[in-house]
Design a protein that fits this description.
39% of the residues lie in helices and 23% in strands. By secondary structure, the protein is α+β, with helices and mostly antiparallel strands. The radius of gyration is 20 Å and the shape is globular.
């Protein structure tokens, strides 16, 4: 059996065993994946972020879920540790696909208030050199990841070279990642919106085979999110407002990686691995149904709602 599939099925078996134990509670209410998704509270239209400091005008291709629903989706459905979702402002979920399917994906929204990021270096960045720096730092960090019991990460290359719009003060790029020796590489698509006091961070994680679709859809996101007047990049007051200690190069390489901590690094891997979790879980349920000749039970609500 393929190691990735075996791992997914093993995870699914543990999850199913946990579900069975929880389901024995007398007050347990069972929910289906459809019921779980219905309770995510999808929103459309104009969304206010950061207490009104930023606005997200949703295109029809995306739906929005708030911090609590994002936490439940990331941890209960996608298998991320609780710490990975602590600072999430919300998520963008494609309208055309359920996040509970193997094809599902989402854009996680966070905010880094490190101060005003000077973009003077944007036009002179050597992106080949930046890529090499990222690859070297990832190799160096792998030793610590392995001490923590997690596999290595390899930055294969740019899936989309960085592009900075100096008029809109928005940046995007995409990396191709490999976890361990998995032949199915991961796409990490990044969008950054620079503001007066920090940067809005939007990260999409999916399979490399979804690059074209995500590239087309995230361009809509670029035009949909902006800081409001008084909080925009051009509202920065030199000598009064805090300035970041890094520029555009540092933003791409990951100047805040140390502050973000281990869980946010792990988040990228588990967002990608969640597809295996879902596929393995569904496959195991189907196998058990065939084995015992009965219908599979819905997932307990406490498992998905906590």
């Amino acid at each position: 059996m393929n190691r990735s599939v075996f791992s997914a099925c093993a995870f699914a078996f543990l999850l199913l065993a946990n579900v069975s134990l929880i389901a024995q509670g007398p007050k347990e209410v069972l929910v289906t994946p459809e019921e779980f998704e219905a309770k995510l509270g999808y929103q459309s239209g104009t969304i206010s972020l950061l207490d009104g400091s930023a606005t997200l005008r949703l295109p029809t291709s995306f739906r929005f879920i708030g911090p609590e629903s994002s936490r439940r989706l990331l941890t209960k459905a996608w298998g991320n540790p609780p710490g990975a979702a602590e600072d999430v402002l919300g998520m963008l979920i494609p309208s055309a696909v359920s996040p509970l399917t193997a094809e599902g994906w989402g854009i996680v929204i966070t905010y880094e208030e490190d101060g005003f990021i000077n973009d003077n270096d944007a036009a002179s960045i050597n992106y080949a050199k930046v890529l090499k720096q990222m690859q070297d730092s990832t190799v160096a960090a792998n030793a610590e990841r392995q001490k923590q019991g997690f596999g290595s990460v390899t930055v294969v290359g740019w899936a989309e070279p960085p592009f900075y719009d100096p008029a809109a003060h928005k940046l995007f790029w995409a990396k191709e990642l490999m976890f361990g020796d998995d032949s199915d590489h991961t796409l990490n698509y990044n969008i950054r919106v620079l503001g007066r006091r920090g940067v809005l961070v939007l990260n999409a994680v999916a399979g490399m085979n979804q690059l074209t679709s995500i590239r087309n859809q995230t361009r809509d996101v670029l035009t949909a999110v902006d800081f409001k007047e008084g909080h925009r990049y051009t509202d920065y007051l030199p000598g009064t407002d805090k300035a970041a200690t890094y520029g555009i190069t540092g933003l791409i390489i990951g100047a805040t990686a140390a502050k973000a901590g281990f869980f946010k690094v792990l988040l990228v891997g588990l967002l990608a691995f969640k597809k295996l979790i879902i596929v393995g879980f569904i496959a195991l349920l189907a196998a058990l149904k065939n084995l015992f000749g009965g219908e599979t039970k819905p997932v307990p609500s406490d498992t998905l709602q906590q």
